[in-house]
Amino acid sequence: MAGWLDALESLASSRAKAGLTRRLRPRPAGDPVVDLAGNDYLGLATHPAVIEASAQSLQAYGLGATGSRLVRGSSVAHAELESDLAAWLGAESALVFSSGYLANLAAVRSLTSVCDLIVSDAYNHASLIDGCKISGTRTVVAPHNSPAAVAALLDEHPGRALVVTESVFSVDGDLAPLAELHEVTSARGALLLIDDAHALGLLGPAGAGGVVAAGLAGRSDVVVTATLSKSLGGAGGVVAGPAAFTRHLIDTGRTFIYDTALPPAVAAGVHEALRLARAADDRRALLTSRAAQTVARLSAAGFEVSPPAAGVLSVLAPGPEAALGWADDCRDRGVAVGCFRPPSTPDGSSRLRLTLNAGVSDADFARALDVIVECSP
Ligand code: PMP
């Protein structure tokens, strides 16, 4: 097709005019910047025991899984991780994927083998939205965090429905009313899928996540997904729920069947991180006090911030370019913060996203808050 590069150029210039050009900023190893942008909430990505477990597995298994899970890619490291993930999450069974994105695609799509309607929260992550799309199943978007609206939609559309939500939402950091949502779904025979990505390791006893905290672990009408790349500091995704469902995923989950498995060395490192995360009450307490400190500091400086349910929160910026400039100025002063602009922000408003990290020292954290305030547009 002639002229396609010109067409891309013109799309890029429209994005640039709207302040929506995205950039990659490769970070060097040992980057001295204070990290309030990554998702290493518990500071386990660089924990010596995690690195050691992963290094030993790397020696034993080599670099990659060498195949998909059903061909050659399943290792004892995967099986042991799955068994401990299921125990932690209080689920009958757990299945590991090579990313949280792929876990969500498979979970949503495979659940529609038994559902003919999806009700999806307006602020759901792109991976859940894409799962709804590829399922080809009728999807209605529910207003954010409204069990009453979900109830009304389910009542309007009789049939077997799947309700999809996050537990802690990935940009604003607010918590879904999980117990109320489950009351609504269970009373109507609907299934509830909860993406626990930003709550795993942070909420609930032993950091078992938002679903355990809400008393919904092990329910036969609840399926949990999560990424292993945030509080567990590695990579990969998990779907946890009734064994009949993980069995169904093994047989029908396209992103499970046709994708090369997570490298065993990553599974082993994540498994060690899981052991540490269970015992990390001190790190969780630190994050709780840091969350309060952040809200107090930023509200005193005149910003609107709501108390985060776990380790992520956002601060509104006047527009996309202002958000980018703010993040750049922070970075120039040694503090990495997330900059979220449309289409990544649920309501189209640009913002800084701050993610707390228990590996950051108290002094660095206090300085980072000062820098954010001083650099504000
Ligand atoms: N769900 C949510 C809520 C997320 O924030 C993310 C990560 N951005 C994912 C799923 C995808 O996980 P992964 O990065 O492991 O693909």
Automatic annotation (TrEMBL):
Q: Does the keyword Phosphoprotein apply?
A: no
The answer on whether this UniProt entry bears the keyword Nucleotide-binding reads no
Cofactor names from the entry are: pyridoxal 5'-phosphate
Give the matching Pfam families: Aminotran_1_2 (PF00155)
- EC numbers, comma separated: 2.3.1.47
Catalytic activity entry: 6-carboxyhexanoyl-[ACP] + L-alanine + H(+) = (8S)-8-amino-7-oxononanoate + holo-[ACP] + CO2
Assembly, per entry: Homodimer.
Official protein name in the record: 8-amino-7-oxononanoate synthase
Organism of this sequence: Paractinoplanes lichenicola
Organism taxonomic ancestry: Bacteria, Bacillati, Actinomycetota, Actinomycetes, Micromonosporales
